[in-house]
Design a protein that fits this description.
This protein is an alpha+beta fold. It has one domain: Alpha-Beta Complex (Cathepsin B, Chain A), CATH 3.90.70.80. It contains 6 helices and 5 strands; from the N terminus they run αβαααααββββ. It has a 5-stranded mixed β-sheet, with helices on both faces. A hairpin with a 3-residue loop joins β4 and β5. α2 (34-44) packs across α3 (50-63) and α3 packs antiparallel against α5 (76-83). The longest helix is centred in the first third of the chain and has 18 residues, at 3-20. The relative contact order is 0.20.
Length: 158
């Protein structure tokens, strides 16, 4: 099965599992910017600010290498330089930096072996994000380390 076929299969499976949890998937564009598009959609209601969030998070990481280098395999400066370029896929390091930068937990739903589970990235330290954050947390789904989409809790009206 190709990567796109495997990703599509994972998307369908994740959709079914999240539906049972009263959650829906909000699809975002890809091309290596999906993680930052999720942040933009979650915080601004639009994906169009993804480059701004990429720039802010990369600069945050650049200024705090001692806090985030542990999440990077290989040379940290090369990683951060690569992340500054549009189309570079975000990693756990960027999720940890974003959680700290935004001051909120980021929950990622992903397949671990044969089962799906949630993993939480908590802020590493306290940081005063320069604007009000309209959410208490961000939820993402990751398909086979290929793509991120945003997850939204469905508010059921009784």
């Amino acid at each position: 099965m190709s990567n796109s076929g495997r990703c599509q299969s994972s998307r369908s499976e994740a959709h079914d599992l999240l539906s049972v949890q009263n959650r829906e998937i909000i699809q975002v564009g890809g091309r290596g910017d999906c993680l930052f598009k999720c942040f933009s959609q979650a915080l601004m209601g639009s994906q169009r600010y993804h480059l701004t969030y990429r720039e802010q998070i990369v600069e945050f990481m650049r200024e705090r290498a001692v806090s985030f280098a542990v999440y990077v395999d290989g040379d940290y400066n090369e990683h951060v330089e690569s992340m500054s370029k549009q189309g570079t896929w975000g990693t756990d390091a960027e999720i940890m930096a974003a959680a700290t930068y935004f001051g909120l937990p980021i929950h990622v739903f992903y397949r671990a072996g044969q089962k799906w589970e949630w993993h939480t990235h908590e802020p590493r330290f306290s940081f005063q994000f320069p604007m009000d954050v309209p959410v208490d947390s961000i939820e993402l789904v990751n398909y086979d380390r290929q793509h991120y989409d945003l997850v939204h809790v469905i508010q059921r009206v009784p």
